[in-house]
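testing teh design pipeline on a random one, pls ignore if ur not involved
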């Protein structure tokens, strides 16, 4: 029975809620306007003589408080924000019809009261649908009359306001009709935009899906029949190569489809292109890569595209974004191959320009001006022109421009102009890249396996800058390479894939299969085979990297560095984090830096925040968060509160994996984190391999077991020299090229924290001491200061859990001494690393 009575009210409120579902700022703006009006109109009374008026200071103050809460929506606790719209409903009833009518009744009407009534009606019409406008107006007016009647000896109805009832009705009716008409127009526009977007995605995805279907059909033809015998089911080498070829083309089609979706969403949302990840690129290399990796419908279509390099140049941008620009322009040119079989596409590189020209049907002059507008298509069935709009956005992000020249029936030419990079800037970039490579690869043993002596000599020349700090050996074929690997341990093998006799795939397979010092050596594939065909086979064959041949010096050095950054035994785990969006919360920017570097090295997208409230804000504003890493000890909303808030949110992301960052892994800490809904635990200092393994398991759906990922720290060492340091951890930073940056930040910060701890301890300030110890614990662990980390932990944990200070009177002096010697050791390590570079 109750449900029957409440159902109409629920439906009524649902209309109001739907009206404000995508527009909470509208309510905030009403709050701002209301506050200004309430304050301003009240002060006007004191600027000129007026007759004695009803003193409305109390109801006015209540209205101001309600409006302030309406304005401060973004500062509401996360668990209360769901009630914001409901709160606004009651607030609007009080602040608009109730307050205005009550004041008008108390004053006996008059021109100000009539004017206020008109303003209130206009606001109500703008704020909600016609049903709730009437209900809010009736409820507010009735409540005002009741209060007025109960507080007034001789209540009277102001007749001047009654006389305006027809005008009030016209405002309500006319305003809602006008708003209804406007909403219909907006709905029609949204429908057309949605249809255009859906048509764009369908049109752009047709080709990748057709290519994927073709690849799957090719695999089906190669695979043996389901009922074939074991011998008949065996595949020969040619069939295996065919399977890999179809697999590579299928993966390429999927990648192309993902690029289409990403481009479409970026264009629709006008999301800016992130310039922080831009790198220096060779125009000739990117163009050649695009021509090789484009998904052609046939070999005949591939033969219609040619490249002319008159002069290579360097530009600064994002390789993936620019590849898509070239893909889009090639696709547009090849669209007319069937109706115009004579079509040829020529891509020219030179004079800081890349030109894509075809001799197809051309474009009429009257449509050239709007060619780069979103959802604009010229002469294509199902096309929308969204790709060209994205091309323009990419070129502008590169500080360049794109233009089109065309003559109908003759040609179409797109010209992309790039800003010139000075010789000085280019040389600075080259020297910086070489210096970084020398730092990362210092002391490494590199084996070059190449059967062509000319190529072998060229490769050695490119690696020349490493000769002073690294050991370079050569092998002329696969058998000689295995013989050398049996005699000596290497860090990297640069392996040609196509050699007579034992090819690169067989060499890699033997290295990974046979026990020995080189079983986990980093292997970089080096081949002239098209990258999209060879990359999958190389990685499947146990290799850690891939570089095309021929290759310039800097890309070759970058490939070797990247291979070193793949953790041994964690190749698969690291790969599963690519493209994952991970929120990292820690109030210390220093502690976040190393973890963020590890995650970005695994191609993850890292969102760094300082506290739990910021985590919740990111969860509400960002789509597709795959995991949250949160420090347990943070000011404000700590890690446990954050985890509980996520689990209790009721949102679609309430089940996102949450990993605790903690300085301790004792049973109470683990139990508390588990009870808060956390899925994993990373003990500071965080080990890269454990970080990758923990996150890759959780983002893949392995929530079942909650485990503590605690790095294996060396036993406490006598605090002297390099024994103070975790050299293995520092070595990992060196491979990332981060030693100098980290130590320049960490060393002075650790000294500052020791000073803070000294002051807090002398004042017996337990909270300040714990804050300093917490920060010092995380920072010493991340900086590889293992003895200092262990010493701080022995002080911090009892103080945290039992409130017990160290028993020794000289504990602070001991900590200061270890910190001082650690600082000297870190500086010595950094100095030695700089000299090696």
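output:
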């Amino acid at each position: 029975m109750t449900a029957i009575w409440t159902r109409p009210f629920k439906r009524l409120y649902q209309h109001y809620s739907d009206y404000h579902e995508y527009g909470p700022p509208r309510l905030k703006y009403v709050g701002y306007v209301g506050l200004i009006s309430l304050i301003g109109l009240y002060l006007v009374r004191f600027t000129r003589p007026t007759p004695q008026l009803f003193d409305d200071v109390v109801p006015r103050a209540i209205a101001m408080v309600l409006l302030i809460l309406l304005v401060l929506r973004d500062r509401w606790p996360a668990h209360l924000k769901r009630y914001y719209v409901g709160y606004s409903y009651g607030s609007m009833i009080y602040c608009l019809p109730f307050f205005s009518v009550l004041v008008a009744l108390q004053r006996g009407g008059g021109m100000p009261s009539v004017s206020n009534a008109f303003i209130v009606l206009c606001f109500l019409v703008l704020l909600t649908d016609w049903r709730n406008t009437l209900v809010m107006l009736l409820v507010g007016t009735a409540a005002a009359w009741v209060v007025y009647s109960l507080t007034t000896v001789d209540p009277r109805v102001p007749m001047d306001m009654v006389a305006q009832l027809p005008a009030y009705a016209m405002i309500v009716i006319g305003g809602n009709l006008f708003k209804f008409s406007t909403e219909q127009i907006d709905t029609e526009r949204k429908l057309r935009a949605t249809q255009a977007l859906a048509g764009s995605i369908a049109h752009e995805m047709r080709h990748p899906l057709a290519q994927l279907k073709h690849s799957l059909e090719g695999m089906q033809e190669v695979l043996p029949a389901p009922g074939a015998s074991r011998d008949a089911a065996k595949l020969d080498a040619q069939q295996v190569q065919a399977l890999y070829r179809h697999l590579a083309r299928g993966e390429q089609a999927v990648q192309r489809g993902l690029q289409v979706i990403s481009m479409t969403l970026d264009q629709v949302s006008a999301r800016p292109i992130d310039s922080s990840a831009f790198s220096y690129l060779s125009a000739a290399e990117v163009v050649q890569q695009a021509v090789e990796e484009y998904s052609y419908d046939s070999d005949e279509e591939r033969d219609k595209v040619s490249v002319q390099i008159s002069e290579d140049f360097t530009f600064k941008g994002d390789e993936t974004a620019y590849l898509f620009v070239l893909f889009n322009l090639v696709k547009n040119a090849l669209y007319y191959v069937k109706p115009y079989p004579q079509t040829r596409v020529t891509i020219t590189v030179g004079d800081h320009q890349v030109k894509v020209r075809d001799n197809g049907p051309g474009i009429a002059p009257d449509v050239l001006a709007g060619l780069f507008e979103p959802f604009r298509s010229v002469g294509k069935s199902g096309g929308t022109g969204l790709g060209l709009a994205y091309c323009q956005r990419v070129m502008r992000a590169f500080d360049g421009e794109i233009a089109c020249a065309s003559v109908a029936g003759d040609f179409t030419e797109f010209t992309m102009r790039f800003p010139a990079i000075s010789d000085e800037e280019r040389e600075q970039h080259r020297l910086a890249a070489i210096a970084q490579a020398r730092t990362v690869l210092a002391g490494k043993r590199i084996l070059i396996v190449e059967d062509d002596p000319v190529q072998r000599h060229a490769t050695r020349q490119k690696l020349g800058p490493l000769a002073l700090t690294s050991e370079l050996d050569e092998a002329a074929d696969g058998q000689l390479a295995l013989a050398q690997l049996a005699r000596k341990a290497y860090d990297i093998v640069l392996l040609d894939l196509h050699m007579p006799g034992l090819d690169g795939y067989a060499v890699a397979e033997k290295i990974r299969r046979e026990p020995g010092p080189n079983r986990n050596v980093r292997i970089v594939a080096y081949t002239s085979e098209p990258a999209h065909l060879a990359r999958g086979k190389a990685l499947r064959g146990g290799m850690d990297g891939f570089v095309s041949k021929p290759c310039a010096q800097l890309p070759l050095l970058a490939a070797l560095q990247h291979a070193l950054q793949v953790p041994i035994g964690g190749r698969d785990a690291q790969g599963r984090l690519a493209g994952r969006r991970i929120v990292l919360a820690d109030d210390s920017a220093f502690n976040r830096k190393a973890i963020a570097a590890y995650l970005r090295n695994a191609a993850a997208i890292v969102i760094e925040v300082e506290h739990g409230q910021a985590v919740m804000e990111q969860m509400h504003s960002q789509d597709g968060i795959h995991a949250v890493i949160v420090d347990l000890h943070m000011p404000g909303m700590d890690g446990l509160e954050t985890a509980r808030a996520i689990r209790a949110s009721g949102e679609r992301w309430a089940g996102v994996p949450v990993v605790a960052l903690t300085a301790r892994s004792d049973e109470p800490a683990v139990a508390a984190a588990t009870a808060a809904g956390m899925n994993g635990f990373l003990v500071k200092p965080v080990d890269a391999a454990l970080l990758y393994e923990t996150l890759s398991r959780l983002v893949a759906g392995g929530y079942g077991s909650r485990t503590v990922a605690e790095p294996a720290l060396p036993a406490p060492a006598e605090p002297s020299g390099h024994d103070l340091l975790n050299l293995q951890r520092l070595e990992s930073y060196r491979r990332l090229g981060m030693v100098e940056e980290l130590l320049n930040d960490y060393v002075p910060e650790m000294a500052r924290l020791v000073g803070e701890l000294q002051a807090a301890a002398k004042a017996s300030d337990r909270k300040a001491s714990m804050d300093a110890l917490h920060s010092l614990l995380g920072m010493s662990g991340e900086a590889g200061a293992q003895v200092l980390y262990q010493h701080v932990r022995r002080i911090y944990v009892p103080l945290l859990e039992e409130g017990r200070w160290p028993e020794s009177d000289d504990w602070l002096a001991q900590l200061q001494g270890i910190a001082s010697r650690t600082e000297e050791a870190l500086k010595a390590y950094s100095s030695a690393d700089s000299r090696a570079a």
